[in-house]
Amino acid sequence: MARTPYVGGNWKMNTNGVSGVELAANVARAADDAVQVAVFPPFPYLIRVGEALAGSGVMLGAQDVSDQDDGAYTGEISTAMLLDCGVKTVLVGHSERRHVIGESDELCNSKVLKALSAGLDVVLCVGEKLEEREAGQTDAVNERQIRAGLAGVSAADMARVTIAYEPVWAIGTGKTATPADAQDAHAKIRTLLASMYDQSVADGVRIQYGGSVKPANAAELFACPDIDGGLIGGASLKADDFAAICQAATASAV
Ligand code: 13P
Predict the structure, then answer these.
(1) Which end of the chain is more exposed for a tag (fewer CB within 10 A), N or C?
(2) Contact (CB, 8 A) for 141 and 203
Protein backbone atom coordinates (compact mmCIF):
# COMPACT_ATOMS: atom_id res chain seq x y z
CA MET A 1 0.00 0.00 0.00
CA ALA A 2 1.31 3.44 -0.88
CA ARG A 3 1.68 5.55 2.22
CA THR A 4 2.57 9.24 1.93
CA PRO A 5 5.91 9.69 3.69
CA TYR A 6 5.80 11.85 6.79
CA VAL A 7 8.75 13.85 8.13
CA GLY A 8 8.53 15.65 11.47
CA GLY A 9 10.94 18.19 12.90
CA ASN A 10 11.07 17.91 16.69
CA TRP A 11 12.80 21.10 17.78
CA LYS A 12 12.86 19.99 21.44
CA MET A 13 13.94 22.81 23.80
CA ASN A 14 15.74 24.76 21.07
CA THR A 15 15.24 27.94 19.03
CA ASN A 16 13.93 31.30 20.20
CA GLY A 17 11.14 33.53 18.92
CA VAL A 18 13.20 34.94 16.08
CA SER A 19 15.11 31.84 15.00
CA GLY A 20 11.99 29.64 15.27
CA VAL A 21 9.99 31.85 12.93
CA GLU A 22 12.89 32.02 10.48
CA LEU A 23 13.30 28.25 10.55
CA ALA A 24 9.56 27.74 10.05
CA ALA A 25 9.52 30.12 7.09
CA ASN A 26 12.37 28.17 5.48
CA VAL A 27 10.62 24.85 6.11
CA ALA A 28 7.43 26.27 4.58
CA ARG A 29 9.33 27.41 1.48
CA ALA A 30 10.97 24.03 0.98
CA ALA A 31 7.87 21.88 1.57
CA ASP A 32 6.41 19.91 -1.31
CA ASP A 33 3.14 18.02 -1.65
CA ALA A 34 4.64 14.54 -2.04
CA VAL A 35 5.58 14.41 1.65
CA GLN A 36 3.66 15.31 4.77
CA VAL A 37 5.79 17.63 6.89
CA ALA A 38 5.20 18.77 10.47
CA VAL A 39 7.24 20.85 12.89
CA PHE A 40 7.06 20.61 16.67
CA PRO A 41 8.35 23.89 18.14
CA PRO A 42 8.50 24.74 21.84
CA PHE A 43 5.10 25.79 23.26
CA PRO A 44 5.81 29.55 23.55
CA TYR A 45 6.46 29.84 19.81
CA LEU A 46 3.49 27.82 18.52
CA ILE A 47 1.42 30.82 17.45
CA ARG A 48 4.26 32.67 15.72
CA VAL A 49 5.51 29.52 14.01
CA GLY A 50 1.94 28.75 12.93
CA GLU A 51 1.74 32.18 11.31
CA ALA A 52 5.02 31.55 9.47
CA LEU A 53 3.66 28.22 8.17
CA ALA A 54 0.30 29.60 7.04
CA GLY A 55 -0.75 28.37 3.60
CA SER A 56 2.23 26.04 3.24
CA GLY A 57 0.68 22.67 4.07
CA VAL A 58 3.28 22.11 6.82
CA MET A 59 1.46 20.92 9.94
CA LEU A 60 1.93 22.61 13.28
CA GLY A 61 2.64 20.13 16.05
CA ALA A 62 3.22 20.23 19.80
CA GLN A 63 5.84 18.23 21.67
CA ASP A 64 3.49 17.10 24.44
CA VAL A 65 -0.07 17.49 25.72
CA SER A 66 -1.87 17.11 29.03
CA ASP A 67 -4.27 14.23 29.56
CA GLN A 68 -6.51 16.57 31.59
CA ASP A 69 -9.07 19.04 30.24
CA ASP A 70 -8.36 22.01 32.53
CA GLY A 71 -7.88 22.95 36.15
CA ALA A 72 -5.12 22.89 38.73
CA TYR A 73 -2.31 21.30 36.70
CA THR A 74 0.52 23.79 36.96
CA GLY A 75 2.70 23.90 33.88
CA GLU A 76 0.49 21.62 31.77
CA ILE A 77 -0.99 22.48 28.35
CA SER A 78 -4.45 21.21 27.37
CA THR A 79 -5.76 20.01 24.03
CA ALA A 80 -8.08 23.05 23.89
CA MET A 81 -5.12 25.41 24.34
CA LEU A 82 -3.19 23.64 21.59
CA LEU A 83 -6.16 23.74 19.23
CA ASP A 84 -6.49 27.44 20.02
CA CYS A 85 -2.88 27.92 18.88
CA GLY A 86 -3.56 26.15 15.58
CA VAL A 87 -1.93 22.85 16.53
CA LYS A 88 -2.99 19.81 14.48
CA THR A 89 -0.83 17.02 15.87
CA VAL A 90 1.03 16.11 19.06
CA LEU A 91 3.96 13.94 20.03
CA VAL A 92 3.18 11.51 22.83
CA GLY A 93 5.69 9.41 24.73
CA HIS A 94 8.88 10.84 23.32
CA SER A 95 11.76 8.98 24.96
CA GLU A 96 12.93 12.16 26.68
CA ARG A 97 9.54 12.39 28.36
CA ARG A 98 9.44 8.69 29.19
CA HIS A 99 12.99 8.38 30.48
CA VAL A 100 13.96 11.89 31.64
CA ILE A 101 10.60 13.16 32.92
CA GLY A 102 9.35 9.68 33.89
CA GLU A 103 6.11 9.31 31.91
CA SER A 104 4.55 5.85 32.16
CA ASP A 105 2.91 3.78 29.43
CA GLU A 106 -0.42 4.44 31.18
CA LEU A 107 0.05 8.22 31.12
CA CYS A 108 1.04 8.05 27.44
CA ASN A 109 -2.15 6.10 26.72
CA SER A 110 -4.23 8.66 28.56
CA LYS A 111 -2.63 11.45 26.49
CA VAL A 112 -3.20 9.55 23.22
CA LEU A 113 -6.89 9.08 24.03
CA LYS A 114 -7.32 12.71 25.11
CA ALA A 115 -5.61 14.08 22.00
CA LEU A 116 -7.58 11.87 19.60
CA SER A 117 -10.88 12.69 21.27
CA ALA A 118 -10.08 16.40 20.89
CA GLY A 119 -9.52 15.95 17.15
CA LEU A 120 -5.72 16.13 17.21
CA ASP A 121 -3.50 13.70 15.33
CA VAL A 122 -0.95 11.77 17.38
CA VAL A 123 2.62 10.63 16.84
CA LEU A 124 3.20 7.91 19.43
CA CYS A 125 6.93 7.51 20.04
CA VAL A 126 8.35 4.15 21.09
CA GLY A 127 11.77 2.54 21.26
CA GLU A 128 14.19 0.58 23.36
CA LYS A 129 17.07 1.72 25.55
CA LEU A 130 20.60 0.44 24.88
CA GLU A 131 20.50 -2.14 27.67
CA GLU A 132 17.16 -3.41 26.40
CA ARG A 133 18.58 -3.77 22.89
CA GLU A 134 21.62 -5.60 24.21
CA ALA A 135 19.31 -7.93 26.15
CA GLY A 136 17.41 -8.74 22.93
CA GLN A 137 14.28 -6.94 24.12
CA THR A 138 13.80 -4.46 21.24
CA ASP A 139 10.62 -6.01 19.88
CA ALA A 140 9.19 -6.72 23.33
CA VAL A 141 9.68 -3.09 24.40
CA ASN A 142 8.09 -1.79 21.21
CA GLU A 143 5.19 -4.20 21.65
CA ARG A 144 4.63 -3.20 25.27
CA GLN A 145 4.74 0.52 24.50
CA ILE A 146 2.44 0.18 21.48
CA ARG A 147 -0.12 -2.13 23.12
CA ALA A 148 -0.26 0.09 26.20
CA GLY A 149 -0.12 3.37 24.30
CA LEU A 150 -2.93 2.42 21.92
CA ALA A 151 -5.23 0.73 24.45
CA GLY A 152 -8.78 1.82 23.67
CA VAL A 153 -7.88 3.46 20.32
CA SER A 154 -10.41 2.45 17.65
CA ALA A 155 -9.48 1.21 14.18
CA ALA A 156 -11.08 4.36 12.74
CA ASP A 157 -8.94 6.62 14.92
CA MET A 158 -5.79 4.79 13.80
CA ALA A 159 -6.05 6.86 10.60
CA ARG A 160 -4.86 9.78 12.78
CA VAL A 161 -2.06 7.91 14.53
CA THR A 162 1.57 7.69 13.42
CA ILE A 163 4.14 5.53 15.20
CA ALA A 164 7.68 6.90 15.57
CA TYR A 165 10.23 4.18 16.27
CA GLU A 166 13.11 5.93 17.97
CA PRO A 167 15.69 3.65 19.57
CA VAL A 168 16.78 5.61 22.62
CA TRP A 169 20.47 4.84 22.06
CA ALA A 170 20.29 6.47 18.62
CA ILE A 171 18.75 9.76 19.73
CA GLY A 172 21.17 12.66 19.68
CA THR A 173 24.15 10.30 19.75
CA GLY A 174 25.13 10.24 16.09
CA LYS A 175 24.51 6.47 16.14
CA THR A 176 21.81 5.38 13.71
CA ALA A 177 20.17 1.99 13.49
CA THR A 178 21.27 0.27 10.30
CA PRO A 179 18.56 0.37 7.64
CA ALA A 180 18.22 -3.41 8.03
CA ASP A 181 17.77 -3.21 11.81
CA ALA A 182 15.33 -0.32 11.55
CA GLN A 183 13.37 -2.08 8.79
CA ASP A 184 13.20 -5.23 10.92
CA ALA A 185 11.79 -3.29 13.90
CA HIS A 186 9.32 -1.42 11.67
CA ALA A 187 8.10 -4.62 9.99
CA LYS A 188 7.51 -6.21 13.40
CA ILE A 189 5.59 -3.12 14.53
CA ARG A 190 3.40 -3.35 11.43
CA THR A 191 2.76 -7.05 12.07
CA LEU A 192 1.82 -6.18 15.65
CA LEU A 193 -0.63 -3.50 14.42
CA ALA A 194 -2.18 -6.08 12.07
CA SER A 195 -2.72 -8.43 15.02
CA MET A 196 -4.18 -5.64 17.18
CA TYR A 197 -6.42 -4.27 14.39
CA ASP A 198 -6.32 -5.75 10.90
CA GLN A 199 -4.04 -5.75 7.86
CA SER A 200 -5.64 -2.72 6.25
CA VAL A 201 -5.20 -0.61 9.40
CA ALA A 202 -1.59 -1.81 9.68
CA ASP A 203 -0.93 -1.04 6.02
CA GLY A 204 -2.24 2.50 6.44
CA VAL A 205 -0.24 3.54 9.53
CA ARG A 206 2.90 5.56 8.89
CA ILE A 207 5.89 4.36 10.94
CA GLN A 208 8.61 7.00 11.17
CA TYR A 209 12.20 6.24 12.13
CA GLY A 210 13.95 8.63 14.50
CA GLY A 211 17.47 8.76 15.90
CA SER A 212 20.34 10.70 14.32
CA VAL A 213 18.68 10.95 10.89
CA LYS A 214 20.71 13.29 8.68
CA PRO A 215 20.89 14.12 4.98
CA ALA A 216 23.66 11.52 4.61
CA ASN A 217 21.62 8.56 5.90
CA ALA A 218 18.00 9.55 5.23
CA ALA A 219 17.71 8.12 1.72
CA GLU A 220 18.80 4.59 2.64
CA LEU A 221 16.54 4.54 5.70
CA PHE A 222 13.51 5.87 3.80
CA ALA A 223 14.07 3.39 0.98
CA CYS A 224 13.11 0.55 3.35
CA PRO A 225 9.57 -0.67 2.69
CA ASP A 226 8.22 -0.17 6.22
CA ILE A 227 10.00 3.12 6.97
CA ASP A 228 7.59 5.91 6.07
CA GLY A 229 9.69 8.96 6.84
CA GLY A 230 11.37 10.19 9.98
CA LEU A 231 11.13 12.14 13.19
CA ILE A 232 14.13 14.43 13.16
CA GLY A 233 15.75 16.16 16.13
CA GLY A 234 19.11 17.89 15.66
CA ALA A 235 19.01 18.03 11.86
CA SER A 236 15.55 19.66 11.93
CA LEU A 237 17.14 22.79 13.41
CA LYS A 238 19.09 23.42 10.21
CA ALA A 239 16.73 24.42 7.42
CA ASP A 240 18.97 23.04 4.66
CA ASP A 241 19.48 19.69 6.36
CA PHE A 242 15.79 19.33 7.10
CA ALA A 243 14.93 20.22 3.49
CA ALA A 244 17.41 17.60 2.24
CA ILE A 245 15.82 14.98 4.52
CA CYS A 246 12.36 15.92 3.22
CA GLN A 247 13.70 15.57 -0.34
CA ALA A 248 14.98 12.08 0.50
CA ALA A 249 11.44 11.25 1.66
CA THR A 250 10.02 12.65 -1.59
CA ALA A 251 12.41 10.49 -3.59
CA SER A 252 11.38 7.42 -1.58
CA ALA A 253 7.75 8.04 -2.52
CA VAL A 254 8.40 7.80 -6.26
P1 13P B 1 18.06 13.33 16.84
O2 13P B 1 17.65 13.41 15.39
O3 13P B 1 18.71 14.59 17.35
O4 13P B 1 18.83 12.09 17.15
O5 13P B 1 16.68 13.23 17.68
C6 13P B 1 15.72 12.32 17.29
C7 13P B 1 14.50 12.59 18.07
O8 13P B 1 14.46 12.42 19.27
C9 13P B 1 13.33 13.11 17.34
O10 13P B 1 12.19 13.10 18.14
Answers:
(1) C
(2) no
